[in-house]
Write a structure and sequence with these properties.
This protein is of the alpha/beta class. It has 20 helices and 14 strands. About 1% of the residues have low confidence. Belongs to the peptidase M14 family. This is Zinc carboxypeptidase.
């Protein structure tokens, strides 16, 4: 797989399967690419692409309807063209001007199309963290911009109408909706690559790249998710050949206006600390790193240091460093997202590192690794924890187009089932003030790998969305939690192993008692951790957690 990924081929990673003499994978290849593989000893079987249903595109009248009735606009009869996605953002702003604003990104696409983000921010809380949601980087993955449009409509509608937020059988209370919008800054770029989407809808349904003109070549397009400044020159999972149909990385990092727009968002809004990039297909939830296996023990082995063996998973010669607390957060959050998806209609997404075989393969210059890497390069920047969702079910070989562009009735179901995953991600990013985030980092640093304390903590973290919902329903309890955690966090900021403060524990005790009643499943863990904290007042956290 490493050798194949280095050739820049358009391979469908969700189709990897074992075989008696190795592995097989489906792809969309040119005649020249097939010939090259055959010459190098690969067995290539050419399959006819099975007939697919006509592309369902929303009728133009939907845009006109949007001006009068955004409710009708929320359930179009097909995939939204670029103009209607822009119209959707306009409708959100027009309908909810108090908490929805358009952020016009600074650069138009190569073909001159403006690119917009919707910013959702309610309440009067000045200091808050941000979340960035992206879709449509790969042009043929039509489902994901529509998914984000549906999600932002239903989220803002629940806030505006003071109702619960439902995704099929899964419901979030209005207090949770208000907590998210009153506490977070949510930025949504539903369509990163508008030129590519328009080309898919009018000319080539398998097109993946943007529509850049490549100097010195008649071939057009750059893979915008291989154009970011993360190991750009390594060539891992990309190609420098402009005529490659899918994974040409461009002449240099950030050569494309679409990627410079995303960098601009992260630079101009430095409080963004969480990002989800939505792709298709395969039912996967993936977290960094994408270039090689993760490890948590050797900080010196990292992407800033040249290494000849980078990009080959499972060889143990090189592995990418990630702090243990980050890996724990990723696994916990991705698990919550997976479980939320399953509750809608039973779909079971796979949680794994981006590079993990057999479903995925090494890549470089992707947006998720770039966003996460910024803090490693410049610690003054806040850490952006990033996750990629690959929506839509795996499909039989020869039917890959159906994975990227399922019939619209199925697409609607995929949109619904992924809605709760985005809510869970936002809840995981959100804490009652930065104090909780700082304290969670401190606890992750000192918690033992096994034992009763670890089990109680992990169980409580698995219930964090319900805990946050309970706190949202009782503002006094939420304020008490924020005050106590802020005190502990202030100590954490100045001490790697802070001493448990008696006043903070006193303030947290009634909050824990309330949560034990509001979330009964959390009661044993809360009681155990409260007792441990009370008896450990005056001791360093590391000693308390190991007692």
């Amino acid at each position: 797989m490493r050798a194949l990924s280095g050739r820049g081929l358009d391979l469908f990673r969700a189709t990897v399967a074992g075989a008696d003499d190795g592995v097989t994978i489906a792809g969309y290849l040119s005649v020249a690419e097939i010939g090259g593989l055959a010459e190098d000893g690969y067995t290539v079987t050419v399959q006819a692409v099975r007939e697919t249903p006509p592309l369902e595109i929303a009728p133009p009248k939907v845009s006109a309807i949007a001006a009068q009735d955004v409710e009708t606009f929320s359930v179009p009869a097909g995939y939204l063209p670029y103009s209607q996605i822009e119209g959707w953002i306009s409708s959100m702003v027009r309908l909810s001007p108090a908490f929805c604003t358009r952020v016009q990104l600074p650069l138009t696409s190569v073909e001159g199309r403006p690119i917009s983000a919707l910013r959702i921010r309610a309440g009067d809380r000045a200091e808050r963290d941000g979340v960035l949601l992206l879709g449509g980087a790969h042009a043929r993955e039509l489902i994901n911009p529509d998914l984000l449009c549906h999600w932002m409509y239903h989220l803002t509608s629940a806030y505006r109408k003071d109702t619960d937020l439902t995704f099929g059988p899964v419901a979030y209370s209005n207090s949770t909706v208000r907590l998210l919008l009153d506490s977070l800054d949510i930025f949504i770029v539903p369509l990163v690559n508008p030129d590519g989407r328009e080309f898919v809808m009018s000319a080539d349904r398998m097109w993946r790249k943007n529509r850049s003109y490549n100097p010195g070549s008649d071939c057009r397009g750059v893979d915008v998710n291989r154009n970011y400044d993360f190991l750009f020159d390594s060539g891992i999972g990309t190609t420098a050949f402009p005529c490659d149909y899918q994974t040409y990385r461009g002449p240099q990092a950030f050569s494309e206006p679409e990627t410079r727009n995303i960098r601009w968002l992260l630079d101009v809004f430095p409080h963004i600390i969480g990002m989800v990039d939505v792709h298709s297909f395969g039912e996967i939830i993936a977290y960094p790193w994408g270039d090689d296996d993760n490890q948590t023990t050797d900080p010196a082995m990292n992407f800033r240091v040249p290494h000849p063996d980078r990009g080959t998973p499972n060889d143990n010669l090189y592995r990418e460093y990630m702090p243990a607390e980050d890996l724990d957060w990723y696994r916990r959050t991705a698990g919550l997202m997976r479980d939320a998806i399953t509750r809608v209609r039973g779909s079971v997404y796979t949680v794994q590192q981006s590079v993990s075989p057999p479903l995925l393969y090494p890549v470089s210059a992707s947006v998720d690794d770039y966003a996460y890497s910024r803090n490693f390069i410049d610690p003054a920047k806040r850490k952006v924890r990033s996750i990629t969702i690959e929506t839509s079910k795996p499909v039989p070989r020869g039917e890959e187009l159906r994975g990227f562009q399922p019939v619209y009735e199925e697409a609607r179901q995929v949109m619904v089932e992924n809605g709760p995953a985005l809510i869970e991600f936002c809840l995981s990013v959100l804490c009652p003030g930065r104090g909780a985030a700082a304290m969670r980092t401190t606890l992750d640093r000192h918690l033992p790998e096994t034992g009763a304390v670890r089990a109680a903590y992990d169980h409580l973290m698995s219930l964090s969305p319900r805990v946050m919902e309970a706190l949202a329903a009782e503002p006094d309890m939420r304020a008490g939690a924020a005050k106590a955690l802020a005190q502990l966090a202030d100590r954490s900021a100045h001490d790697h192993d802070p001493v448990l403060d008696e006043q903070a524990i006193t303030d947290l005790t009634p909050v824990a008692a309330y949560l034990a009643q509001a979330v009964p499943e959390a009661q044993p863990a809360l009681e155990a951790l409260t007792a441990l904290a009370t008896q450990s007042v005056g001791s360093p956290i590391s000693r308390a957690l190991k007692s």
